[in-house]
Amino acid sequence: MNFSVQILGSNSASFAYGRHHTSQVVNHNDNLYLVDCGEGTQIRMAKFKIRHSRINHIFISHLHGDHYLGLMGLLSTMHLQGRKHDLHVFGPSGLEDIITLQLKLSDSVLNYQIHFHAIMPEQEGVIFEDPQLEVEAICMEHRVPCHGFIFREKPKKRRLMRNKIEGEVSGELIFMLKQGQDVVTQDGRIIESSLVTEDPGAQRTYVYCADTRYTETHLSKFKEADLLYHEATFLSDMAERAGETYHSTAADAATLASKAQVKNLMIGHFSSRYKTLELFLAEARQHFPKTVLALEGETFQIGSVSPALVVEHVSQDVSH
């Protein structure tokens, strides 16, 4: 089952040096979830051949422009290209007002229904779930209400090895076997789950920490996560500036990753004051070696690619 994240934009406040505003697409079992939607997101989607018709859920972390100003354009394009099916948008309580006002003033009525799911300033907990995945909102420490998102797989059933089963077995007993239970058939045969099923594999977790100062508030919630994305707007020589603007340094992000014992760290949201990114990678790896840069266009497999391969994949060019 695919579980990956593709980077569409990785810069902070303004476009610079070929880097665009923050936006990512999480793919879980071919269900696409858009996380933040900075200006130019739909152009980046076209470049990387991501069909916006496949996106049914959008998560907006906060109402600073570099994280949502691309949303209205994307919604309009969805309308113009004939979208009919519903769209779910999760974000700060004011987001619905912003979109509704723009539609009203342009005398526009969309072909499809938008379901707004307001995330209140202090709200935390699960905000979306389907049979395989849940998304939890966590509060960041930023200048305005801001949330991060934890994409966490639900517990999986064991996989049945049908070639190991002899004779007729009812659907009810097969369900029990997948739950790890031993069963007795109608003709008295005992079937041990461990002999006819395979381990489903571990639940995988992707954590998206949007704009925030360094905080250890949620360490326990994403301890040992497969991949942590954390903003790293500045280098450590500007730590004071980072604190004043409610942002983090590369060292901050790496320190948090180390304390949370995550498997991999990805850093992004780079300030436009930096032309190249080599120093970000070097600074973070001093504290957490399994760090990669959120380079635009790159796709990171969550939980199925070894850390060494991930690092090698993106370290070839850090001049973006």
Overview of the molecule:
The chain is α/β, with parallel strands linked by helices and 320 residues long. It has 2 domains: 3-154 and 204-314, Metallo-beta-lactamase, Chain A, CATH 3.60.15.10; 159-197, no CATH class. Helix content is 25%, strand content 26%. It has 10 helices and 18 strands. The strands form 4 sheets. It has a 7-stranded mixed beta sheet with strand order 6-5-4-3-2-1-18. A 7-stranded mixed beta sheet has the order 7-8-9-14-15-16-17. Strand 8 (133-139) and strand 9 form a beta hairpin. Helix 8 (250-260) runs parallel beside helix 9. It is globular and about 70 Å long.
Characterize this entry briefly.
By secondary structure, this protein is of the alpha/beta class.
Strand arrangement, major sheet: 6-5-4-3-2-1-18
Q: Do you know the CATH topology of the largest domain?
A: Metallo-beta-lactamase, Chain A
Kindly, what is the distance between the CA atoms of the first and last residues, rounded to a whole number of angstroms? 31 Å
Mean pLDDT: 91
Number of helices: 10
CATH architecture of the largest domain: 4-Layer Sandwich
Instruction: Name the structural class.
Output: alpha/beta
> Given the C-alpha coordinates, what overall shape results?
globular
Number of strands: 18
- Strand percentage lies at 25-35%
**Tell me, what is the CATH class of the largest domain?**
Alpha Beta
Specify Rg, calculated over alpha carbons. Answer: 22 Å
Low-confidence segments, given as residue ranges, are: 306-320
**Integer count of domains:** 2
At the fourth level of CATH, the homologous superfamily of the largest domain is Ribonuclease Z/Hydroxyacylglutathione hydrolase-like
What's the main sheet like?
7 strands, mixed
Q: How helix-rich are the residues, as a percent range?
A: 10-25%
Strand-and-helix sequence, N→C? Answer: EEEHEHHEHEEEEEHEEHEEEHHEHEEH
